[in-house]
Design goal:
binds ligand MGD; iron-sulfur; 28 strands; molybdopterin cofactor binding; binds iron/sulfur cluster; Phosphorylase Kinase, domain 1; alpha/beta; 4 iron, 4 sulfur cluster binding; Dimethylsulfoxide Reductase, domain 2; 31% helix; Rossmann fold; binds molybdenum atom; metal-binding; metal ion binding
Amino acid sequence: MRGMTTALRICPLCEATCGLTLTIDGGRVTGARGDRDDVFSKGFICPKGASFAELDNDPDRLTRPLIRRNGALTEATWEEAFAAVAERLGAVLAEHGGTAVGVYLGNPNAHTIAGGLYTPLVVKALGTRQVYSASTLDQMPKHVALGYMFGSPVAFTVPDLDRTDYLVVIGANPLVSNGSLATAADFPGKLRALRKRGGRLVVIDPARTRTAEFADRHLAPRPGTDAALLASVVNVLFDEDLVDLNGLAGHVDGVDEVRALTADFTPDTVAAHCEVPADDIRTLAREIAAAPSAAVYGRIGTSTVEFGTLGSWLVDVVNILTGNLDRPGGAMFPLSPIASAPRPPKPGRGFRTGRWHSRVSGYPEALSELPAAAFAEEIDTPGDGQIKAVITIAGNPVLSAPDGDRLDKALDGVEFMLSIDPYLNETTRHADVILPPPPPSRSAHFDIALNSLAVRNNARYSPPALPLTGRPDEAEILSRLALILYGLGHDGDPMLVDDQVIAMTLAKEVADPHSPVTGRSVDELTAMLPQAPGYERRLDMMLRLGPYGDAFGAKPDGLTLAKLKAAPHGIDLGPLRPRLGEVLRTPSGRIELAPHQLTADVARLRDALGRRPDGFVLIGRRHLRSNNSWMHNLPALSGGSNRCTLRINPDDAADLGLTDTAVVKGPGGELLAPVEITPEMRRGVVSLPHGWGHDRGGTGQRVAADEPGVNVNQLNDGTHLDPLSGTAVLNGIPVDIAPAG
Ligand SMILES: Nc1nc2c(c(=O)[nH]1)N[C@H]1C(S)=C(S)[C@@H](COP(=O)(O)OP(=O)(O)OC[C@H]3O[C@@H](n4cnc5c(=O)[nH]c(N)nc54)[C@H](O)[C@@H]3O)O[C@H]1N2
Ligand SMILES: Nc1nc2c(c(=O)[nH]1)N[C@H]1C(S)=C(S)[C@@H](COP(=O)(O)OP(=O)(O)OC[C@H]3O[C@@H](n4cnc5c(=O)[nH]c(N)nc54)[C@H](O)[C@@H]3O)O[C@H]1N2
Ligand code: SF4
Ligand SMILES: [Mo]
């Protein structure tokens, strides 16, 4: 026990952001438990968080950069690696410009300070429109729906879990995923508390998931039909005179249009399409309307489908029409401590997608991104504007995006590829240089992105639990990359980057009449920031300018980074409060319930009502002890129920004579998968998890390679997208199933 200490660290492994207490011994993390005093998570922890030590110490984690020499990736010093980036990426920039560089940003960027504060600088420095991310494999439909309805694509509505009386979870399995786009540590405990206080939980999911099993009621629609189902709920609300805008009355445009648009989505019409009894749809609508408060919450199963944007839109249409938007117990807007301090309501410029289009397939841009499903074709299709170099930051698109085999080949053909990633995996094995960020114990943590999704406002900061010696943290890696891209060489001072951001931000603030620091001097404010790493200076600035901030001394009780550091278990900032006026940025200054960009797609939905393809439909699933593609390398999380199997209903299996291995054929290819027969699956629906297929050579994740699984995304050819958001259809894919052999 001698020398053993503890350190607090927010878990970066999923959106729940639990506070962990790490035990530290001999200069390394040896264990992790939930921090009972954490203001937000109150001791909750899951098996992944509990494996923090194993993840942190994984011997397969890269500790030094790798550079490709004579075809092989070999270890190099940091100086050599940055010099190689400057030289080889510089050559591409000199010949083709930054616009020929394709960038892919993966999911962990949402979980690190570096991803939140420095990745955008890299993208900006390149000036490229070839930007791809996991968002178009995930939540882009929600952004697009929010953008059109509220004028801001990041005006996230989250269910007020602690106070709601009636929660509808559609296309999410938070008892396994621990919640997404609704940052709530201990989602299971919150669902228990909901039921204990007499509230009800309804789950809409084709699979009888853990969350569905726990619910008061489970509806199991045919995959891909959520938008039609929700349109029908809206139809009932109008038909039975249950619409009640409540406090929103007078702030919503387009109610009559929505009534007209959904007029033919009667429960009797959609019941056969959704395979949900018409009466269940009526009951659902009546109960949502009757509940003292209710929140509809949709996630991956509503998002990564054929009508993802329509479904995401209709989720909030139901919240709005039942008067549940922006009120306690309903769907509310969190207020992050680093959001700008509220400004007076004002009309915005409006949101739109399609300001430019992808070169090969002409897909519209959304939030300055192009569809991840189009990444490969933009690399391997010759012509003007072709991607010549690639940068991946915290992503593994070879497994995460459709048709990884094509991307695999395409990446081999680029002139230069840089990956910033701790692992040599299916994607990074193609890189010419890999720059590995340090393990999480050696970096600071603040939830740049996820605080704006938290179901209770809070602020928490973890300094590095262990010192970092002899290697840069990820903020510095990305700063140095930005300097290289700006032509400032490979050995520029990374602090320059932060100084520049601070100078620009403060100049804007002091010139803004509504800023809490309006009219003050930039020099005065800059001098008040701590002598500290650049990210701490920036965080302090953001907190002080933010809604709870001290306004650089003007509000002495307000928040600063120093105060946050003095509260290691975090600062609770209270329950969510109504704030629609602060977030609305539509040109009309009102909620646009029926934006024409969205309603134009309803015709396509109507056409689909008549379609009921026979054959099987494939959906995805997540496992409690897994995290997308990158946590299959930890022995503690491997094996047991965490397996890449094809789940199928017992009657379907019997009909097909399936016992052990199935051939699964999809639009993009076929694969062999072990069969798991379970009544959790309804008839006609099968599931495979994603992130598997660790059998490609040249990777460095030994445990993962031992039980590789298969890559479900190879069944997908990448041509099926939600047209409004460019999000890949990952759920509801037609497949053929047959016994192997
Ligand atoms: N079929 C199907 N496909 C899916 C999904 C699905 O439901 N079904 N889900 C989609 C969703 S929601 C998502 S978010 C995507 C995820 O897609 P990606 O983000 O492309 O994939 P991940 O598996 O999360 O890969 C994360 C990468 O980040 C690295 N990494 C981990 N920590 C850090 C860090 O601190 N810094 C850096 N620089 N790198 C780090 C890991 O080594 C790994 O290479 O997958 C999508 N793909
Ligand atoms: N343990 C663990 N936790 C994770 C992750 C992980 O890989 N493992 N990944 C993280 C990431 S990146 C994300 S984005 C979140 C995702 O968080 P969730 O969305 O909660 O996670 P999923 O398990 O993908 O849940 C999607 C559900 O949608 C259902 N579904 C599929 N098709 C349809 C449909 O057409 N309609 C309806 N109504 N339902 C459908 C599936 O059966 C599944 O239960 O989880 C995060 N947390
Ligand atoms: S629920 Fe998420 S944040 Fe909490 S311990 Fe598990 S992985 Fe970490
Ligand atoms: Mo995700």
